[in-house]
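Comment thread on ticket #2218

A.B. wrote:
> Attaching the input chain for the structure job we discussed in standup.
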Amino acid sequence: MFDIYTIIFLALAIFIFLRLRSVLGQRTGRERPPYDPYSARDARAQSGDKVVSLPTRNAETAPKPLETVEPSERWKGIAEEGTPVAAGLDAIVAKDPSFDGKQFVMGARAAYEMIVNAFATGDRKTLKGLLSKDVYEGFEAAIRDRETKGETVENRFVSLDNADIIGAELRGGMAHVTVRFVSQLITATRDKSGNVVDGSPDKVTDVTDVWTFARDVTSRDPNWKLVATEAGQ
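C.D. wrote:
> Ran it. Output below, let me know if you need it in another format.
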């Protein structure tokens, strides 16, 4: 028999799964991300890559058309009116009226945790669905090197304090949105004997990452993919 707490947690798990699916789409980086497999590859993410979207196209949840929203309210809590970020977001929503800044940030936060955790556990399937080809190759090479050495990674999020859009632009049909993440993580890498060779299983580390997501707004594919990473300040 299931007790009431089991039922509550099962319902919560189903809700979280459905929420991530609706935000990220159905197909399913000085301070660095907890691991740094892609620093040499970051600049190689090209705008011509065919890549992903975090909010889905849904007629029921689509935001108001651009012309019906007051400019001063359009990006409230997301970007200041008159800034390059706001202008970039305006350009994106002009091409894709379903784009919603707040939902995008929610999806970006979820994607950030999923990607960091998937890298730590070597979950290639999850990474392949969320990363552009170049970024995936960097992550996969690091995972493969780790496996060859017999190393394992322990990773735990303490908090994800901020996720702020700091850049947005439309290049042809490609929308690019850059987000600065500020988080606290506990991370440690152990060798095959179980000895800690990097990080600490007892120390909280402050991490700042700047990641860029991109999507072809002319495509019916609603997904965004991570196309570039860099250390944040």
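A.B. wrote:
> Thanks. Noting for the ticket: The chain is about 35% helix and 25% strand.
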